[in-house]
Write a structure and sequence with these properties.
The chain is mainly alpha-helical. The protein has two domains: 5-92, Rna Polymerase Sigma Factor, Chain: A; 95-186, Arc Repressor Mutant, subunit A, CATH 1.10.10. It is 70% helix and 0% strand. It has helices at residues 5-13, 18-39, 42-59, 70-90, 104-108, 116-122, 126-135, 138-149, 154-161, 165-186.
């Protein structure tokens, strides 16, 4: 029988050190995958993954299963570590993570475009998609990555990012529009 994350944390709290190693093995791929796509560099993603699990290990006693799943909590730790890393490394203006009330009209207009799965299926390769993702503002990129690659719900994303669920839905929609535009710019020009 496979133990839940919460059961493993409880065993770890009771002194079974291997329980935390099991959590690391269970979640390492998802955390690394998110971080690689978020920061765009394999070495940085490795470093931040290691930092994430060290921080999670130190803060394991503060985890509250009533507030979020362990996966959501761990991805929040990873996201915060990545943001800190990017601030230190690139001195990025993090005002792009704010200002959610811009372009409200875009949220109310019907979107006749293709679904994200259709866009991704049409993209020639993963590099095209990654280039397009990295053209997006970080706040859009993180929502898409967490929603599609880590399969978090809008509710979990809201809890993780400390934002209302409707804000996350709006950000997701704007991110899809921006991704569609970025993929359109990367598409080869066809002869008329």
């Amino acid at each position: 029988m496979v133990k839940s994350d919460e059961e493993l944390l409880q065993e770890y709290a009771q002194g079974r050190r291997e329980a935390f190693s099991e959590l690391v093995e269970r979640h390492l791929t998802g955390v690394y995958s998110f971080l690689l796509r978020f920061v765009g560099d394999a070495q940085d993603a490795q470093d931040i993954s290691q930092e994430t699990f060290v921080k999670a290990w130190r803060a394991a006693a503060t985890y509250n299963a009533k507030k979020s799943s362990f996966k959501t909590w761990l991805l929040r730790v990873a996201r915060n570590a990545a943001v800190d890393h990017l601030r230190r490394r690139r001195n990025i203006s993090f005002s792009e993570f704010e200002g959610e009330h811009e372009h409200l009209i875009a949220e109310t207009v019907a979107d006749p475009g293709e679904l994200p799965e259709e866009l991704l299926a049409k993209a020639e390769d993963a590099q095209t998609v990654m280039r397009a993702l990295h053209e997006l503002p970080a706040k859009y990129r993180e929502v898409l990555l967490l929603y599609y690659t880590n399969e978090l719900t809008f509710e979990e994303l809201g809890a993780m990012l400390g934002e209302p669920q409707n804000t996350i839905k709006s950000r997701h929609r704007r991110a899809l529009i921006a991704l569609r535009e970025a993929l359109g710019r990367d598409a080869p020009k066809q002869a008329k």
